[in-house]
Amino acid sequence: MKKIVIIGCGNVGLSYLKKLCMLDMSLDISLIDIDEDRLEGEILDLEHSLVYRNSNIKIKFGSYSDCDDADIIVITTGVIQSTNDRMSDLEKANEIIIDITNNLRKTNFKGIYLVATNPLDVMTELVSHYTDHPYNKVIGTGCMLDTARLKSLISKKIKVKANDINVYVLGEHGNSQFVAWNNANIGLENLNRFLSLDEKEELEDKTRHMGSIIVKHKGYTSEGVASCLLELTLCIINDLKKVYSVSNYNTTYDVYLSTPCIIGRNGIEKVINIKLTDEEEEKLEEASEVISEALDKILPKELY
Questions:
Q1: 89 is known to lie in a ligand binding site
Q2: pLDDT of residue 66
Q3: Which ranges of the chain would DSSP assign to H, the alpha helix?
Q4: What whole-number distance in Å separates Cα of residue 74 and Cα of residue 7?
Q5: Where along this sequence does the record place binding of NAD(+) (predicted)?
Q6: Is 133 a catalytic residue?
Q7: pLDDT at residue number 297
Q8: Does 21 show up as a binding residue in the annotation?
Q9: I need a labelling partner for 303 at 20 to 30 A (CA). Which of 17, 32, 155, 218 fits?
C-alpha cells in the first residue's frame, strides 16, 4: 500500500485528496493541517463517501512522524494570493515553508516531494534547500498547470482535442512564463499552421493571467493544480515515464524553473533538452533571473 502525506488541507489540498479518493487503488493517506476540527469533519465525510465504492483507501489526521515511511509528501500549504503577482507573498510563504521543513528534517523521509505552494518555483527551491533532499525528488507543479490551461484554450480555438496538442509553457510559474511555440505541433505539423502570430500572443497572454481570471470569478484556484498533483502522483506510483513541464533544478541557471521532464518512480527521471530559438532562450534566462532575484531576498546567493 502506497503512503501519501498531504501537508496543508486548504482548497488545493482537499481537491487533491478528493481526486485520490476516486482512484481504484490501495492508499494510506495522512493529512497534516493546523485546523484539526475542520479536518476531522472532512475525513469523516470522505470516509462515508468511500463506503459504496468498496474502497481500499485509508485516511487519517496525521503528524510528521507519518512522513518516515511515506512514498510521497505533497506540500500545498501557502498564503492566499493577494495580487496578480505571486511573488508579492514571498516572505509569508517562506515562513510557512521554514516551519514545515524544520519538522520534515526530523523525519526519515526518503521519498518524493511534490510542491504546489506559490511563488511556486521559489518555494520548490526552498524545500530542496531546507531539507537537503535530492533535486530529482523535489518537484514543483510549475508550468504543468499553465500548459494545461494553454492546451485548453488552443483546443477551443482550433477544435482539436487538448491532449493531441503538443506544446509546453516554460520558465516561471508566474508573469515571466513563455510558450515554446517553435516546438509546438499537432501530430507532426507545427502549430504555426493553425494559429496566427496575433492569436498566439493572445493565447499566451490569457494563459499567463488565467489564475487571476479564475480567482476573480471563483475566489481561488484549486481543481487545475490538484489535477496536476494527481497526475504526478500516478506517474510516480505507476512509474509511467510521462513528460510534463514541471519545476525542476536547472543546472544552467542554478535555480528551479519549468522545463519538460520525464516523471517516473524516481521522480524526475530525465530532463528533456529541447532546442529553443534565440528569443526563447532569452525568455528562459529572464525567467531564471526573476526567480533568482526572489531567492536573493531570502537566501544569500552562496547558500543555494
A1: no
A2: 97
A3: 11-20, 36-50, 90-104, 120-131, 144-158, 197-208, 210-218, 223-237, 278-296
A4: 6
A5: 8-13, 33, 94
A6: no
A7: 87
A8: no
A9: 32
Find out whether 94 is annotated in a ligand binding site: yes
pLDDT tens digits, one per residue of 159-181: 999 999 999 999 999 999 999 99
pLDDT in tens, 218-251: 999 999 999 999 999 999 999 999 999 999 999 9
pTM above 0.90, yes or no: yes
* Catalytic residue (one of 48, 129, 133, 173): 173
Nearest to 150 by CA among 177, 111, 120, 123: 177
User: Which run of H or of E encompasses 270?
Assistant: strand 267-271
Per-residue cell: 102 = 524544520
Low-confidence spans in the chain with pLDDT less than 50: none
What does 76-110 look like in DSSP terms, one character per residue?
A: ---PPP-SS-GGGGHHHHHHHHHHHHHHHTTS---
Q: According to the annotation, is 182 in a ligand binding site?
A: no
Neighbouring CB atoms inside 10 A of 91's CB total 10
* Residue 296, number of CB atoms within 10 A of its CB: 11
**Residue 258 near residue 246, CB atoms below 8 Å:** yes
CA distance 68 to 86: 32
Residues in the chain: 304
By CB atoms closer than 10 A (0-12, 13-18, 19+), residue 75 is buried
